[in-house]
Amino acid sequence: PRLRRPGRSLSAHVARTSVGRRGGRSRVPGGSGNGLRGASSVAARLRGGETVIADQFDEITVLFADIVDFTGLAAHLSAAQVVGVLTDVFTACDELADRYGLEKIKTIGDAYMAVGGIQPGEEHALRRVAGMALDMLAAIDMYRAPTDRRLQVRIGLHVGPAVAGVIGIRKFFY
Predict the structure, then answer these.
(1) Cα–Cα distance for residue pair 168/61, rounded to 1 Å
(2) Which residues contact 18 (CB under 8 A, 6 or more apart)?
(3) What are phi and psi of 59, to 5 degrees?
(4) What is the per-residue pLDDT across 69-105, written as a single tens digit (0 to 9) for each?
(5) What is the mean pLDDT of the chain?
(6) What is the 3-state secondary structure (H, E, C) of the chain?
């Protein structure tokens, strides 16, 4: 079952958030390509003969979020409900990342990671990542699990240098 507050879905709530927030709805040219500086540029680099794909950034902004005590909640849910909760929450996060022109890096269990500042010419990454974090808090605040339990998230931000590269052959790691 999809998680909803009576009459309002999480996705519908996300669609209404950040409209008035300064910096919301900003898009970064070439952003959100689901990979370091765009998946197509990685493919081109691999076709061009590069065997080690690694880039260094002087300053990026990373968002890391996880659901507080998700393991405890999951113990009271069916497998389908666990997957439903994570799908709903991460779909909302993906929509916010797109709205703010940020790059989703990965999900691991109940954790979500996104980054700003990796596209050439990208500005105001910290402001956009912080805006996404605030909108995530607002969206999750209205969310209810099938047990009618309120979800809480921990969100951390980091600004600074980073190295990103293809680990294995399929995905970037930061």
Answers:
(1) 24
(2) 24, 25, 96, 99, 100, 131, 135
(3) -155, 120
(4) 999 999 999 999 999 999 999 999 999 999 999 999 9
(5) 80
(6) CCCEECCEEHHHHHHHCCCCCCCCCCCCCCCCCCCCCCHHHHHHHHHCCCCCCEEEEEEEEEEEEEECCHHHHHCCCCHHHHHHHHHHHHHHHHHHHHHCCCEEEEEECCEEEEEECCCCCCCCHHHHHHHHHHHHHHHHHCCECCCCCECCEEEEEEEEEEEEEEECCCEEEC
Per-residue pLDDT of 106-132, as tens digits, reads 999 999 999 999 888 888 899 999 999
Task: In whole angstroms, give the CA distance from residue 6 to residue 21.
Answer: 25
60 close to 105: Cβ distance less than 8 angstroms: no
Provide the residue count of the chain. 174
pTM value is 0.75
What tens digit of pLDDT does each residue of 153-164 get? 999 999 999 988
Residue 43 — very low, low, confident or very high, per pLDDT cuts 50/70/90?
A: confident
Strand 4-5 to 8-9 pairing? antiparallel
Using a 10 angstrom Cβ sphere, with 0-12 exposed, 13-18 middle and 19 or more buried, the burial of residue 157 is: middle
